[in-house]
Specification:
Layout: H1 5-13, H2 31-39, E1 48-49, E2 52-53, H3 59-74, H4 76-99, H5 109-114, H6 134-139, H7 154-172, H8 175-184, H9 186-196, H10 208-225, E3 245-252, E4 256-257, H11 258-264, H12 269-275, E5 283-284, E6 287-294, H13 298-317, E7 331-334, H14 341-347, H15 352-358, E8 372-376
Antiparallel strand pairs: 1-2, 3-6, 4-5, 7-8
């Protein structure tokens, strides 16, 4: 068996040479050969999740595992993208799990949850790498509002996930049950355990999504622990490189434009957005922020930023009085439960685009009850 795939990726991250998987075989696995190979697959025993046995001698467990496994290997493009993105994010996740004495298998959770995509969301309004819902994100220290959503930040969301899993393990004394609770919620899992009088995950009747959830993580572990076995071969150049950046501490006045940050860093607005996926719009509210900027730009950033901020302030102060609308003449509206931007625009006889521009909103912004909106004169 080949060395663990993620150990190889860590080696890449540290600058070591990676085996040339593209040359591992003289020919590519053809569809017919691949079909025959998969149809005769057997799982190597013993199987475990976080050191806890997966009882595949149980026919139901085996069938569910096989279903998830086949689903993944036949969606080969998805596994390929998992592997490519893993080289970008997995070294950090593995490092933090190890430093916190957490099971290494938890690294497969964000792969199954989000395919390692920062902006992905679910029908239940879970967002980001680890798919936190808002309430849980806030509970574990993440900022989640209309301006900033740290569920999209790999570093901060990983810290929150580690804290949450540690709490769940403390509650249930099992990593398998902790992962089940992560998927369906602690209250629902505890209720099922009490009603069914068993705390063995594999003997609990839970929502079908949760029954499959653990086995989907195990299936991802099987494939990514030995990708060559299933025809996934890559060279170092095929993998996505980790982002390189400098972190700068920035003091922002109210509604500071990220375009000013980009100009101070000598880069583009898109680059700042890509490096900081937690920033939701074009502006940051007043406060102190740790912002990622392109590698090498930190040395001259602060002086440029202060110059640009001062110039922007002077320009706004120098605007002709005719262009300055007295605050007293402006009308505001406090959002109520059930309101939408379209309905508010219609109520005040303004266009949706004007309403959004005045309030520096974008279409996907979720307006929450209590938010104060400028609605016209």
């Amino acid at each position: 068996m080949l060395p663990n795939f993620f150990m190889m990726l860590c080696a890449v991250f540290m600058g070591a040479a990676l085996p040339d998987w593209s040359q591992a075989s003289e020919k590519t696995v053809e569809p017919a050969e691949f079909s025959a190979m998969i149809s005769n697959i057997t799982f190597e025993l013993p199987l475990d999740f976080c050191g806890e046995k997966v009882p595949i001698e149980n026919s139901d467990v085996y069938e569910r595992l096989e279903k998830q496994f086949l689903f993944f290997v036949w969606r080969r493009h998805q596994v390929i993208l998992w592997m490519k993105r893993s080289s970008r994010y997995m070294p950090y996740i593995e490092k933090r799990l190890k430093e916190n004495n957490m099971p290494e298998d938890l690294k497969y959770v964000p792969i199954v949850e989000s395919a390692l995509l920062p902006h992905i969301g679910s029908p239940k309004n879970a967002v980001g790498f680890w798919q936190f819902i808002k309430a849980t994100g806030l509970r574990f220290g993440l900022t989640v509002n209309s301006d900033i959503d740290e569920r999209r930040n790999i570093y901060k969301s990983t810290e929150a996930a580690i804290a949450y899993f540690r709490k769940l393990y403390g509650d249930f004394s099992s990593w398998t049950l902790a992962a089940a609770a992560y998927n369906m919620g602690e209250t629902g899992l505890r209720s099922n355990i009490e009603f069914q009088k068993t705390d063995d995950f594999y003997h609990l009747y839970l929502p079908l999504e949760t029954q499959d959830y653990i086995l989907s993580i195990v299936a991802a572990k099987i494939i990514l622990s030995d990708p060559d076995k299933y025809g996934f071969r890559f060279s170092k150049e095929d993998l996505y490189a980790p982002a390189e950046f400098d972190l700068v501490q920035v003091q922002c006045s109210d509604n500071t434009s990220l375009q000013i940050v980009a100009e101070a860093a000598g880069t583009y607005f898109k680059t700042i957005k890509d490096l900081n996926p937690e920033f939701r719009g074009r502006y940051l509210p007043g406060g102190n922020y740790s912002i990622a900027i392109p590698k090498g730009a930190a040395e001259s950033f602060q002086a440029k930023y202060e110059t640009l901020i001062r110039r922007d302030h002077e320009v706004r102060q120098a605007e002709p009085e005719a262009k300055k609308e007295p605050v007293a003449q402006k009308r505001f509206y406090v959002v109520k439960r059930g309101d939408s931007l379209t309905a508010i625009a219609q109520r005040f006889n303004v266009s949706l685009s004007e309403l959004m521009a005045w309030n520096r909103l974008k279409h996907q912004n979720h307006i929450e009850p209590g938010k104060r909106l400028l609605v016209g004169d």
